[in-house]
Design brief:
seven-stranded parallel sheet; elongated; five-stranded parallel sheet
């Protein structure tokens, strides 16, 4: 079997890919980049290492020994299948923190400063004078922020948003372990007593059984009427039906969702048309920015060195735990 690495990415970035090629060459491997599964199929049979997304790649790679998933989330991957084939698995958690943090800040500030309202007036060609604006502007400065999920995504956001001088940034995690980017971290089983205290709730949770509907109807009812929810983790974490009802009845101020229980979001979903609910199509962390693609390839190259030197993979994941 040839020493071959196959990388499959819809956003083909030859500059970022060169990082992988240079590292692979040091160990006698070749590394090639393809833009789709169809393009990669003829080259997968003798590939030892694969970097891509989806179980479909492995069907055409009978000799694969290591599969690096190009996303942070690993839900949807069959742990038994990897175990039976003896294929190592890693992911790209840590790649997307910068772009997702910027997305969260963008959505929070647009909601707080009523940019969506101004866009509606722009479309109608209506000028609003200051005397015509009856909605209070809000600011990240002085806001009380709760971040559910204190891994790379949550911690990167916390470090970025601190420059806006919020009143507090609290993290929520399963363990409650302290993370330096947060003023303090609470355990998830303390959420019921914590939720009423925050202006902005940011959700950066992985898709696991433990996170299913963690923000359910009962917990949504605990939130302040001024609360804003932003979810960039996984769609399973919010009871979407209960969220729609909370927004319709003005029990919370607004929500911005980038992830959903069903993707693509069905045309008939009420989420499209719920007031004060803003939808983006799972793009907060996509590899549409060069900085993201470059970091993705640097992390992969780092683990190529670990693999070739016989060391454990730094970004190995436990598919049964979901991270």
């Amino acid at each position: 079997m040839s020493k071959k690495i196959v990388v499959v990415k819809a956003h083909k970035d030859e500059v970022a890919m060169q990082i992988v090629r240079d590292t692979a060459a040091k160990y006698g491997y070749t590394a090639e980049l393809y833009g789709s599964l169809d393009e990669a199929k003829p080259h997968l049979e003798d590939a030892e290492i694969i970097h891509g997304m989806g179980m479909g790649l492995l069907k055409y790679a009978p000799n694969a020994k290591w599969y690096c998933i190009s996303s942070a989330g690993v839900n949807g991957y069959d742990a038994d299948y990897f175990d039976e084939r003896g294929v190592l698995v890693s992911n790209s958690a840590g790649t997307y923190g910068t772009t997702i943090a910027e997305h969260i800040i963008m959505m929070a500030t647009m909601i707080m400063r009523h940019m969506f309202m101004f866009e509606d007036y722009r479309r109608s060609g209506t000028w609003l004078g200051q005397q015509d604006i009856h909605e209070d502007f809000r600011t990240l400065c002085g806001s009380r922020i709760l971040v559910l999920g204190t891994g790379n995504l949550g911690a990167t956001f916390a470090s970025r948003v601190r420059s806006f001088e919020p009143a507090s940034i609290i993290g929520g995690s399963r363990s409650g372990r302290e993370v330096k980017e947060f003023d303090r971290v609470v355990k998830m089983d303390e959420l019921d007593s914590e939720l009423p205290n925050y202006d902005l709730i940011v959700m950066c949770l992985p898709g696991t059984p433990e996170t299913d509907n963690i923000l359910n109807k009962e917990r949504l009812a605990l939130l302040s009427k001024d609360a804003i929810i932003i979810n960039v983790g996984r769609g399973n974490a919010i009871d979407e039906e209960a969220l729609v009802e909370a927004l319709k009845n003005d029990r919370i101020a607004a929500a911005a969702l980038d992830v959903f229980k069903e993707e693509p979001l069905p045309e008939e979903s009420p989420l499209w048309h719920t007031k004060n609910l803003y939808v983006t199509p799972h793009v907060s962390g996509q590899e549409t920015a060069h900085i993201t693609r470059e970091l993705n390839m640097r992390m992969f190259a780092e683990d190529i060195e670990n693999y070739c030197e016989g060391r454990p993979l730094k970004y190995a994941v436990d598919l049964r735990r979901g991270y």
